[in-house]
Amino acid sequence: MIKSPGTWLGGLLAILFVATGAIAQMAPERVPALSGPPQEMGEVEAKPIPKWVVDDARKERAYPDQPPVIPHSIEGYQLSVNTNRCLSCHKRELTQESGAPMISVTHYMTREGQMLADVSPRRYFCTACHVPQADVRPLVNNTFKDMSDMGVKQAGSE
Ligand code: HEC
Ligand code: HEC
User: Which residues constitute the domain of residue 80?
Assistant: First the structure.
């Protein structure tokens, strides 16, 4: 039997309709509970707020360009247009007294690579990139693989 292109298209659309319906039904299982319990109006017990990791030990970076995570408390540190508490330890001029690692050279560059005498405006709000860590279960499973575990022989390893 020869079918018209219309019949084919109709069939295809019907399959698509059923398939998307099936995927939509699976969706709730794939989305992690990021938004808390489903009964918004009911009273639910509040879990204790996890504690920050504040052991002062600088953490390994997952890749060279990763903004290092903050290993100390930043509770109450003001970070506004007039005051930057982070720079009071981390800027070049103050690192000798504070013992803090200097903000790296990239923090003095404009996005065209031009060097500035002070921190670049695009690096001023530190916590846009640097965050403290808490010891909690990740909301989404992490399948990240360190690039050094992918079979690359590292320079100087023999
Ligand atoms: C009182 C001084 C001080 C202040 C204020 C301060 N830091 Fe630090 N920071 C340090 C010291 C010292 C270290 C080295 C590790 C340690 O002793 O905690 C450090 C480490 C870090 C590191 C880790 C660097 C690495 O290579 O692993 C980051 C990131 C960082 N601080 C970001 C911040 C940010 C963002 C703020 C502001 C919200 C801030 N710091 C405020 C002193 C300070
Ligand atoms: C736009 C994102 C961004 C912002 C904003 C930012 N950083 Fe960074 N920071 C990075 C990245 C990425 C690195 C690692 C690569 C590099 O050095 O550029 C880094 C590295 C660092 C390091 C480690 C330097 C070293 O040599 O080990 C310190 C300390 C640091 N930042 C502090 C700060 C502070 C303090 C501020 C706020 C004044 C700040 N950063 C703002 C992205 C950012």
Answer: 68-136
